[in-house]
Amino acid sequence: MAEERLYTDHPALYDAIQSGWDYDRDIEFVVDRLTRHDIGGRRLLEVGCGTGEHTRRFHKRGFDVTAIDAYEGMLSVAREKLEREEGSETGSGAGSVEFRRDTLPRLDLDRQYDVAVAIRGVINHVSPDALLPTIRGLADALADGGLLVFDNSPLPPDGNRPGLDVGETADGRYVRVARHVPREDGRLDWRSVTFTTDGEPFVSSRPMTPFADATMYDALVDAGFDIETADGYGPGDDRTVFVAVAPG
Ligand SMILES: C[S@@+](CC[C@H](N)C(=O)[O-])C[C@H]1O[C@@H](n2cnc3c(N)ncnc32)[C@H](O)[C@@H]1O
């Protein structure tokens, strides 16, 4: 079976594939929900930070960020971006950032946070059995009344047909064919073959879980959260976003 390669070996390609994503909109969503819930604290836990696009924006907005990801490949790009930005004239952020490698469902944390985020399908990477421990762990990571924001990626539960994606990285063109293949355990195997300009095609595979919104909702109830949902982080985004207040 192929392994996950995009996150481990090709984080720059991840950024190219995701280059159309509106990261600023997501930040505005989180900041708006903190204001609505009258949460002024700046301690922010970001789980599944990837290549750090949200991280550096939260940093600029004055948050003290602990940014966690399961893959060192993604973290190394995130660190480089932040260092570049810190060195630039426009890059000064008011907050602090600590990058850490760790893996859901159980995070090794030594403090509590005012807000925890897991943006863009991060929770869909955990297995069905790991959902409740994940949500409980995030509840433990939050101070009383802290805010949890995460989303449910709209994955096709029955799989889909291969899709083609052609784009550009700094090194040139890539072509990717990808599809979700249903597994017997109800999860999906996300499989892809990517050709890059350096000539070496690579195969990648990653299990994902197509959770029902109700399953995520129930896990939040079980962990004692008060819950609201939103249709996406903003216009054009059709995923369900959960905004949940930790038990106080
Ligand atoms: C779809 S990406 C989203 C990254 C980032 N939040 C963004 O919006 O660009 C999912 C991220 O979750 C990370 N991830 C996957 N499984 C994880 C786990 N069990 N614990 C922590 N991070 C995980 C991946 O390495 C990847 O960076």
Record keyword descriptors for this entry.
alpha/beta; 7-stranded mixed β-sheet; 4-stranded antiparallel β-sheet; N-terminal domain of TfIIb; 2 domains; Rossmann fold; binds S-adenosylmethionine; single chain
Radius of gyration: 18 Å
Mind telling me the CATH superfamily name of the largest domain? Vaccinia Virus protein VP39
Report the average pLDDT across residues. 94
- Ligands (ions, cofactors included): S-adenosylmethionine
Give a count of the beta strands, DSSP E runs of length 2 or more: 11
Low-confidence stretches: none
- Please trace the helix and strand order, writing H or E for each element: HHHEHEHEEHEEEEEHEE
Beta-strand percentage range: 25-35%
Structurally, how many domains make up the residues?
Answer: 2
Largest sheet: 7 strands, mixed
What would you call the structural class? alpha/beta
CATH topology of the largest domain: Rossmann fold
- CATH class designation of the largest domain: Alpha Beta
Query: Counting H and I runs of at least 4 residues, what is the number of helices?
Result: 7
